[in-house]
Design a protein that fits this description.
The chain contains 11 helices and 10 strands. The chain starts with a strand and ends with a helix. InterPro entries: ClpP/crotonase-like_dom_sf, Enoyl-CoA_hydra/iso.
Length: 265
C-alpha cells in the first residue's frame, strides 16, 4: 500500500511510499484516514512517527498528474463535496476529498516527522497539521510550489503564520521558493537537523522519550495545547484546569497521582 502503518511497541510508524518522491494520490489520502483512526484508537500506542520512504522526499505533494473527477452537473459536484458520501466510498477515490477528513480529525496523540529530501505542497500541509516535533535531514527542503501553477490557499490550509514568523511564511507562500533545512530550523519549522542517515534514529529518540509517559497525560497535554491555541486566554486556562481535574479524579486522589507519576517501569 502507498501509505503503510505498523506498530512497534508504543510507537506507530506511518510511511508514505509511492515512487521516488512519494506524491500523494486520492487513494492514499483515504488510506491515511483509515490508518489515523487505527492509530488514535489504539491505547497501546503512545506516539507516532511519520516519514517518507527512501531518501529523496517526505512527500513532494499531491500528484498533479492525477485527473480530477468529472461531475455531470454543478449540483452533483456540490453535493459530493458537502455531503459525507465519500466516507462510504467502496471504489477507489477519484478526488482529493479525503485529505479534508484527515485534517479534520481530532488528533490528541503526538506524531514526530522524520523528513528527508522534499516536503512540498500536501506533504507540507500534512507536516503542519499531523506532526508536532520534526527532524529534518541536511538536504531537506520545505515549500509550497503550487502558486507557480496558479493555485493558492496553502497559507489558510496550514495557518502557517501562526507557527513561524509571518514574514517567513509569506516569503514561502508568495514566492513559491522553498526553505532549506537550516532556514527551517531558524524559523522553528523543525526541531533538529541531522545527517540523512540519522533522521529516523533521532525521531525514534524523541518518540521513546514521549512514549515513557502515561497515555492519558499525553492526551490531556495535546488537547490542552491544541484547543488552547483557538481559545481566549481565559478559555484556555479554564479548559486546561478542567482537564487536569478530570485526571486527578481518574487517578483516585493525590496519593495515587504521586505514585502514578513517579512509578518506574
Amino acid at each position: 500500500m502507498p501509505i503503510e502503518y505498523e506498530r512497534k511497541g508504543k510507537i506507530g510508524y506511518f510511511t508514505i511510499r509511492n515512487g521516488s518522491v512519494n506524491p500523494m494520490t486520492p487513494a492514499m489520502h483515504k488510506q491515511l484516514y483509515g490508518h489515523m483512526l487505527e492509530f488514535l484508537a489504539d491505547d497501546n500506542v503512545h506516539v507516532g512517527i511519520m516519514q517518507g520512504a527512501g531518501d529523496r522526499a517526505f512527500s513532494a505533494g499531491d500528484d498533479i498528474k492525477t485527473p480530477y473527477a468529472k461531475f455531470d452537473t454543478p449540483m452533483a459536484e456540490l453535493e459530493y463535496y458537502l455531503a459525507p458520501k465519500h466516507r462510504m466510498e467502496t471504489k477507489e477515490p477519484d478526488t482529493f476529498s479525503w485529505s479534508r477528513d484527515v485534517l479534520a480529525l481530532d488528533r490528541f496523540k503526538p506524531i514526530i516527522a522524520a523528513v528527508r529530501g522534499y516536503c512540498f505542497g500536501q506533504g507540507m500541509i500534512y507536516l503542519s497539521h499531523l506532526t508536532d516535533i520534526r527532524v529534518a535531514s541536511e538536504d531537506a527542503k520545505f515549500g509550497f510550489p503550487e502558486i507557480a501553477y496558479g493555485m493558492g490557499g496553502a497559507g489558510g490550509s496550514t495557518r502557517l503564520s501562526r507557527f513561524i514568523p509571518h514574514t517567513v511564511a509569506m516569503e514561502m507562500l508568495l514566492t513559491g521558493d522553498p526553505l532549506d533545512a537550516q532556514q527551517a530550523l531558524r524559523a522553528n519549522l523543525v526541531n533538529a537537523v541531522v545527517p540523512a542517515d540519522q533522521v529516523l534514529a533521532k525521531a525514534e529518540a524523541y518518540a521513546e522519550r514521549i512514549a515513557r509517559h502515561p497515555l492519558v497525560a499525553l492526551r490531556v497535554e495535546m488537547e490542552a495545547s491544541l484547543r488552547g491555541m483557538d481559545m481566549s486566554r481565559q478559555g484556555a486556562l479554564d479548559h486546561a484546569k478542567n482537564l487536569y481535574r478530570m485526571q486527578r479524579l481518574a487517578y483516585g486522589g493525590e496519593e495515587r497521582v504521586k505514585e502514578f507519576l513517579y512509578k518506574q517501569d
